[in-house]
Amino acid sequence: MAKVEIAPLRNWDDFCPGLERFARPDTRDLAKSNNRVVSNLLYYQTNYLVLAISVFVVVGCLHPVSMFMGAAVVASVFIGSVWAGENKAIIKNFKKENPALFVFLGMVVSYFLMSLFGGVMVFLHGILLPLILIFAHASLRLRNMKNKLENKMESAGLKKSLMGIILEALGQQEENLNKIQDFLESKLKE
């Protein structure tokens, strides 16, 4: 198994080029759109981390106690869902069959727990705002040749990154998405 590597920080011209490198995702082909998101998450993971930390720090400076509470709740739900997904057969099967719904339910549980403790708006601004920005960029940014090559190396097991480990824990591996896409394409050709 390859050791975990930290992806390089991509330069600004690659991360946010002109509008010609952004396009609306194809909503008719969800496997292809999901593949684009996963690929961009893997390729730009360090840039996304810098973006998330920047927003987190700004909101955290404004509301430190609420941000700490929100971070603790989200981390607890994430760790609990990953543990349950690995150790409980029913949840493991659900995660395998519905990976996007599994992630969505984790977000809903986090939101519900935050509403019990108060500070929902701080949670939304400090934690979900970076996630929304990251998802929007990953959905809209077209992949380039370097992006595709890096992702093939990760899916082949030649490289391992922190984002790859997180996506694998959430059931969002690119190889599973490619299998789904190949299956759908073969069925369309028949």
TrEMBL record:
Q: Which SUPFAM superfamilies match?
A: MFS general substrate transporter
- PANTHER family attached here? PRA1 FAMILY PROTEIN 3, PRA1 PROTEIN
Got a GO cellular component term for this one? cytoskeleton
Query: What membrane topology does this protein have?
Result: Multi-pass membrane protein
Q: Which gene encodes it?
A: LOC113050477
Task: Identify the keywords attached in UniProt to this record, alphabetized.
Answer: Acetylation, Cell membrane, Cytoplasm, Cytoskeleton, Endoplasmic reticulum, Membrane, Transmembrane, Transmembrane helix
Q: What is the originating organism of this protein?
A: Carassius auratus
What InterPro entries does this protein map onto? Answer: MFS_trans_sf, Prenylated_rab_accept_PRA1
Report the sequence similarity comment from the record: Belongs to the PRA1 family.
What name does the UniProt record give this protein? PRA1 family protein
